[in-house]
Specification:
By secondary structure, the protein is mostly beta strands. It has no helices and 47 strands. Strands 22, 23, 24, 25 and 26 form a 5-stranded antiparallel β-sheet that branches. Strands 1-29-28-27 form a 4-stranded antiparallel β-sheet, with no helix packed on it. Strands 2-3-4-5 form a 4-stranded antiparallel β-sheet, with no helix packed on it. The C terminus is likely disordered.
């Protein structure tokens, strides 16, 4: 991945005016910047400033300059912003869905020490670090906070994994601690993971490792259980200074680290299973990078500086035009943004397993996406934004796709028919057959189609007045039993009595 400078969102000042924190909304529509004067500036996805609001101290008697904002994050629904402050409080502001909506404080959480960093990984759950060393959780539904774990060292950094179900905290004594809300079956350990040689102010949790850096001017990539995978040593480089912040791409396969006048980029190589350093982005007079924020679709990175400037960069591995109608932007090995050039609508096609996405095709009257990885098949409906990733073994690209049904893709390959519902990551079903005709297959939840696989023709169709949620043929294939959503059982025998050939019944059951 390479960084290309696009625009300056906020011009730097002549002296120190630190951008303390930044955040992108989950829906990619809003970008927030908090300046040294404790004002939150709101931008749209195109980089135009659309709104702003001032934060407030925990107690007005100490004045509006009695605190700093140290952490900021959008809620998963993009309608709220959490603000963590050094005057021992977190405010949650309801900003609404439209520009100009009134900003209202809907939650506040008073703490026993200064808030130093903050994340909002899941609905109702805000995770934050404190100066006293604790990592705590604030529940916006109950308006209560609780301690997740405690240490004796100042929390200097806090980050989450790509799914938001695990957190990492970096501490002033170099300790890095890991905690899972849900380890998703990984079996990885919790608790103290590693002792970094210096405070890991730059901390990122990528797909295949944890990247940490700080004032010793060394970048270290740790494995899943804390062993050192790679080290990038710039301690002898007179042009390099301490690393101050880091951010992993939403796909977890790139990490950007900020220092003085420079952004360093590490890209994960799936084939070599190592981090590779891209050409660093050097900008004279940028000064120290104090904050980084990656757009959720992976296409943009913003950098805030010590002098109050905010620079926006384009993030791209490669970009291509498909039939002069679509723009394909590969923002990482496993993530592609598909943009309709006429309507401007975008769909993010991503392998949730981190596999490298191969060629993307747009088929079925230019409505459906098809792409392969080494072990999966990616499908998508551009009209509904329903995406699927199912296990799939490579077959040399010999599959035939049928898009006659709006909800289900029919795939015929090597004598096997597979049905995949858009939006589901499991196949609906598959059957061996040497004959394929989409007009003889029913994917209607109220219709049962019976097909002779040897003769390759439609034997019969049974229409019903309610959703069918279970069906089965007897061993000889002469009788069919099915049940509907009203728990009524029906038997069909007369129509099947004379059938002696091998038959299959196909029905796609959805939302049962």
């Amino acid at each position: 991945m390479q960084l290309k400078h696009l625009r300056t969102l906020l011009s730097p000042q002549d002296g120190a005016a630190k951008v303390t924190c930044m955040a992108w909304s989950q829906n990619n529509a809003k970008f927030a910047v908090c300046t040294v004067d404790r004002v939150v500036l709101l931008y749209d996805e195109h980089g135009e400033r659309r709104d702003k609001f001032s934060t407030k101290p925990a107690d007005m008697k100490y004045g509006r300059k009695s605190y700093m904002v140290k952490g900021m994050a959008f809620s998963p629904d993009s309608t709220k912003i959490a603000i963590g402050q050094t005057d021992n409080i977190i405010y949650v502001y309801k900003i609404g869905e439209d520009w100009g909506d009134k900003k209202v404080i809907c939650n506040k959480f008073i703490q026993t020490s200064a808030v130093t960093c903050l994340q909002w990984p899941a609905e109702f759950i805000i995770v934050f670090g404190l100066a006293e060393g604790k990592v705590r959780l604030a529940n916006t539904k109950t308006n209560k906070s609780s301690t997740i774990y405690g240490t004796d060292s100042y929390v200097v950094s806090l980050t989450t994994n790509c799914s938001g179900k695990g957190i990492l905290s970096g501490h002033a004594d170099g300790t890095i601690v890991r905690y899972f809300f849900d380890d998703e079956g990984s079996g990885e350990s919790q608790g103290k993971l590693v002792n970094h040689p210096c405070p890991p102010y730059a901390l990122a949790w990528a797909t295949n490792s944890i990247v940490a850096a700080g004032c010793d001017r060394r970048i270290v990539a740790y494995g899943k259980e804390g062993h050192v995978l790679q080290t990038f040593d710039y301690s002898r480089d007179p042009q390099e200074r301490e690393f101050t912040t880091a951010a992993a791409s939403p796909g977890g396969q790139s990490v950007v680290l900020g220092s003085y006048d420079r952004l360093r980029v590490l890209n994960w190589s799936p084939r070599r299973s190592i981090w590779e350093e891209a050409k660093p982005k050097e900008i004279a007079n940028l000064y120290t990078v104090t904050a980084l924020a990656w757009k959720r679709d992976g296409s943009r990175l913003c950098a805030g500086t010590l002098c109050g400037g905010v620079e926006q960069f384009d993030c791209c591995l490669r970009r291509s035009i498909y039939k002069n109608k679509f723009e394909l932007t590969y923002v990482g090995p496993s993530q592609v943004i598909v943009k309709n050039l006429s309507s401007g609508t975008r769909v993010v096609l991503k392998s949730h397993y981190g596999y490298e996405v191969e060629e993307v095709k747009i088929l079925g009257k230019e409505r459906y996406l098809v792409a392969h990885t080494s072990d999966t098949l990616l499908l998508g409906d551009l009209a509904t934004n329903h995406l699927s990733e199912v296990a799939w073994q490579g077959s040399g690209g010999n599959e035939k796709y049928f898009f006659e049904n709006e909800n289900v893709c029919m795939i015929f390959n090597a004598g096997e028919l597979t049905l995949v519902e858009y939006g589901s990551n499991d196949t609906l079903g598959s059957v061996r057959t040497e004959f394929m005709n989409p007009h003889l297959i029913s994917v209607d939840i109220k219709t049962i189609a019976i097909v002779d696989l040897i003769g390759g023709y439609n034997i019969g169709t049974i229409s019903h007045d309610s959703r069918v949620d279970w069906l089965e043929l007897n061993e000889t294939g002469h009788k069919l039993l099915f049940r509907d959503r009203k728990l009524r059982v029906r038997r069909v025998t007369k129509a099947l009595a004379d059938w002696s050939t091998k038959v299959v019944v196909l029905a796609a059951i959805r939302n049962c």
